[in-house]
Amino acid sequence: MTSNATSPEEYIAEAPEERRSALEKLRRTINDNLPKNFSEGMQYGMIGYFISHEVYPDGYHCDSKQPLPFMSFASQKNSINFYHMGIYADKDLLDWFTSEFPKYSKKKLDMGKSCMRFKKPEDIPYKLIGELVQKVSAEDWIKTYESAFKR
Q: How crowded is the C-beta side of 39, counted as CA atoms within 13 Å?
């Protein structure tokens, strides 16, 4: 479910009422832990965190007009989804996250390549997500991105 919202505040205001506080808390958790040189905004119809063209002029290889994406989250039809490209590109980070997850949640991790799905807002492990957000600097992400994705 993509949104036409032009700001994170507008995106959250459009979300179902029962999810708004969870989305606000997730946003606050990310922003409180976000390393320098990442920016927040709307990207691909979701609240996104990316490296701006001022920091990384090349932009995203799939569409150089877009800043380099890194994380995002969205209120989907059946879940709140959190996307983290670092987990997709770095096996050590993925292994860390999957081993830590059971310490923060009694639920089974519902995860795709870079997407974690939380069917209920109360299932979101905010503290773990905060730790994950801190683990990758913008400089580290650029290096990983260039070695894993950029041709």
A: 14
